[in-house]
Specification:
seven-stranded parallel β-sheet; alpha/beta
Length: about 250
């Protein structure tokens, strides 16, 4: 696949799935703007890409702050007229029984996993609508499709992102803008590595392929949705979970 001449925003590009996605898209010719609150990780990802001759820039983005999102959009549109696509890959989670969750944890989970993506999408859409072209890929989670023990509010936020994907796809079809969703299963990211060893082992045993996904395997699904091969696909949800979740 060749995405030369196209520009994409990838949130959460400092690490994990976002980083793998940003570097993969850049390797097939795209110009990438990483948005992340982790400035050290974001600059590191951009530097890795630049060292390989790729077009990657880092711009600070705090998805819990509407002013930060507005500033990111303004900075981006100061560099280019519009983006060809947006990958809402940023996410955050903490595994804990629902009855033990402090309310501020709910606020953070919903802000990062749902409202941040909604606000950023709203900020980047108008030039895409005016051009009558664009692609959006939201990274949700299979927790949002079937639920997950100890991740109740996270699952609620990710389920909301799936619903947002489907509804936005209906609204944006008239402008030839594709909106799709990728739902990873357990993936070898910094978030996953912070889980207790017993949980990681139990998840690995539950996956039919008997292994955890690598971030690049999720990134490949994102690349497909952003490519011309997916021009007639919109409003779809694709699980990339090694068979852990087989949902309709």
């Amino acid at each position: 696949m060749d995405l030369s001449g196209r520009s994409f925003v990838v949130t959460g590009g400092a690490s994990g799935i976002g980083r793998a996605t940003a570097l993969l898209l850049a390797r097939v010719g795209a110009r990438i703007f990483i948005g992340d609150i982790d400035q050290e990780g974001g600059r590191s990802a951009a530097a890795e890409g630049v060292a390989a001759g790729l077009l990657i820039e880092f711009l600070k983005l705090d998805l819990t702050s509407s002013s930060s999102i507005d500033g990111f959009v303004a900075a981006l549109h100061g560099k280019i007229e519009r983006v060809d696509g947006l990958v809402n890959a940023a996410g955050w989670d903490a595994v804990q029984p629902f009855l033990e969750n402090p309310p501020e944890m709910w606020d953070r989970l919903i802000a990062i996993n749902l409202m941040g993506a909604i606000r950023l999408t709203r900020g980047l859409l108008p030039p895409m609508v005016a051009a009558g072209a664009g692609k959006i890929v939201n990274i949700s989670s299979d927790a949002g499709r079937v639920g997950s023990l100890g991740e109740t509010v996270y699952a609620a936020a990710k389920g909301g992102l799936i619903a947002f994907t489907k509804s936005l796809a209906r609204e944006m079809a008239r402008y030839a803008i594709n909106v799709n969703c990728v739902c990873p299963g357990p993936t070898d990211t910094p978030l996953f590595q912070r889980q207790p060893e017993r949980i990681k082992e139990a998840l690995t045993r539950a996956i039919p392929f008997r292994r955890i996904a690598q971030p690049i395997e999720i990134a490949q699904a994102v690349l497909f949705f952003l490519s011309d091969r997916a021009n007639y696909i919109t409003g779809q949800v694709l699980s990339v979970s090694g068979g852990l979740t087989m949902a309709d």
